[in-house]
């Protein structure tokens, strides 16, 4: 369960290098509460349970690999975010992290709004009963058809990402006889302390309109000049899996400066700002995420302070947690297949899933924890690399971790904190069947996204 301490510089999964890791934990049977869903525990027999149900029973009923989601944990996190920000702010769940009709219904019941970034996510939201006015629509290249539908159903806001999109949304809204509420997404030039591919506020990337060179100010001018648009605010998102609030402080300061420029030039104060999401979660014991109330206070204080300095009324704040809500609520359950010791290096443990159900390790160099969950063990720890069954040397689930040395084929092991981006980015590589998502709550388990079948794979193959 220990996080690796890797050397600086690029690393490649298909090149054997010296192992870099911290010492094994004192007891491999202990589950770190930071990285597991709230109802996860070990029973007297040593098996891990979630929602009061043993994983061995879940594996028998639903198979492996499978994602098991703690519904009570998910709902509690929704309430924590809603309570932290209160009635004078808006919390939009970022649907890209993981979205299903059950998730949409839970969000609606717990009082959260929903952020979508594709026509498919919009369809899921509407089909599950999310009111259109509680939906925000993101995306750097929304199609005409997607915009037409969003405007027609009356989504609460469309986040404009380019000069072309400003004109496109205005033209479509005018043609439909509508006036669409919009925000302008700006890139504020903040280098978030995260992986290059999930840092989104520096200027050399595809999202948003840069503050630099007056581009964002020009975007505001164009949006205010078009009858089909109602400009309600500015949007900024600096990246993902961020623990340091300093980037948000810089971002808020620069967004407020833009609001002051808008007031000075146009004589209006835009009523809203959206500071995005991206707050990190604990994937390993070394991660130390902030609680929602801490985040709410920090962001509120930053915006209030900057607005007072600029002589502006404090705008309504929006945030977009996705991973921070759903990430910790789920784990992926695997069955051990083969075990291959490499003397002097590590032991390779192959499971019945892999990069098709969790691409993040290969894509982002992400780190995860791992635990033997079908039983306890007093055996000495062994350094392992948990890998999948796909035809890629980069098919790694957990790079460096410790598991008991008596691990055997047929044992169940689980990777926590896989609620975000794992199922939503899952693939059919090697014609793998995407795993089910099973919601567990108060001793009951039910499928909310079923396992794919071979018939599903062939249904689209018309050749």
Question: Could you write a compact summary of the structure shown?
Answer:
The chain has 463 residues and is of the alpha/beta class. The protein has helices spanning 55-62, 71-85, 101-110, 119-127, 144-153, 163-175, 215-225, 246-266, 292-310, 323-326, 360-364, 454-459, and strands spanning 41-42, 48-50, 53-54, 66-70, 89-94, 113-116, 135-137, 157-160, 180-187, 209-210, 229-235, 272-274, 316-319, 330-342, 346-351, 371-372, 381-387, 396-404, 412-416, 437-441, 444-449. The chain contains 12 helices and 21 strands.
Question: Can you walk me through this structure?
Answer:
The protein has 463 residues and is of the alpha/beta class. Helix content is 28%, strand content 23%. The protein is built from 12 helices and 21 strands. Strands 4, 14, 15, 16, 17, 18, 19, 20 and 21 form a 9-stranded mixed sheet that branches. An 8-stranded parallel β-barrel has the order 5-6-7-8-9-11-12-13, surrounded by 5 helices. Strands 1-2-3 form a 3-stranded antiparallel sheet. The longest helix has 21 residues, at 246-266. It is globular. 47% of the residues are buried.
Sum up the structure in keywords:
463 residues, alpha/beta, 9-stranded mixed beta sheet, 8-stranded parallel barrel, 12 helices, 21 strands, disordered N terminus
């Amino acid at each position: 369960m220990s996080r690796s301490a890797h050397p600086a510089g690029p690393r490649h999964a298909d090149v054997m290098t010296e192992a870099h890791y911290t010492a094994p934990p004192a007891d491999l049977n202990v589950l770190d509460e930071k990285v597991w869903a709230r109802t996860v525990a070990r029973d007297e027999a040593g098996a891990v349970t979630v929602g009061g149900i043993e994983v061995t029973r879940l594996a028998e009923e639903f198979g492996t690999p499978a994602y098991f989601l703690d519904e009570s944990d998910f709902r509690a996190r929704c309430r924590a975010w809603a309570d932290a920000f209160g009635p004078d702010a808006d919390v939009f769940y970022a649907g890209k992290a993981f979205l299903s009709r059950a998730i949409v219904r839970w969000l609606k019941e717990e009082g959260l709004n929903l952020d979508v970034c594709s026509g498919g996510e919009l369809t899921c939201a509407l089909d599950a009963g999310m009111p259109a006015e509680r939906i925000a629509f993101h995306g750097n290249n929304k199609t005409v058809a997607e915009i037409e539908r969003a405007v027609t159903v009356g989504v609460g806001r469309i986040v404009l990402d380019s000069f072309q999109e400003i004109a496109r949304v205005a033209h479509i809204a005018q043609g439909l006889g509508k006036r669409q509420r919009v925000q302008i997404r700006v890139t504020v030039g903040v280098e978030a302390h995260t992986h290059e591919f999930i840092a989104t506020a520096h200027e050399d990337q595809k999202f948003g309109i840069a503050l630099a060179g007056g581009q964002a100010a020009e975007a505001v001018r164009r949006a205010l000049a078009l009858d089909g648009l109602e400009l309600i605010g500015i949007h900024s998102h600096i990246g993902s899996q961020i623990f340091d609030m300093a980037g948000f402080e810089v971002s808020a300061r620069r967004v407020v400066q833009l609001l002051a420029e808008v007031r000075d030039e146009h004589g209006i104060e835009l009523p809203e700002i959206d500071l995005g999401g991206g707050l990190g979660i604990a994937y390993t014991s070394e991660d130390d995420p902030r609680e929602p109330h801490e985040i709410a206070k920090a962001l509120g204080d930053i915006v209030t302070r900057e607005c007072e300095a600029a002589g502006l009324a404090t705008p309504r704040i929006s945030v977009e947690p996705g991973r921070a809500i759903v990430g910790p609520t789920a784990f992926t359950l695997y069955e051990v297949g083969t075990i291959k010791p490499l003397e002097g290096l590590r032991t390779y443990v192959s499971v019945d899933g892999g990069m098709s159900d969790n691409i993040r390790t290969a894509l982002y160099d992400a780190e995860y924890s791992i635990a033997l969950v079908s039983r306890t063990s007093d055996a000495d720890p062994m350094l392992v690399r948990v890998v999948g069954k796909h035809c890629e040397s980069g098919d790694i689930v957990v790079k460096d971790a410790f598991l008991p040395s008596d691990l055997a084929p047929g044992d169940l092991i689980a990777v926590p904190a896989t609620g975000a981006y794992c199922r939503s980015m899952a693939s059919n590589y090697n014609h793998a069947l995407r795993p089910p998502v099973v919601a567990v709550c108060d001793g009951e388990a039910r499928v909310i996204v079923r396992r794919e079948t071979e018939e599903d794979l062939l249904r689209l193959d018309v050749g």
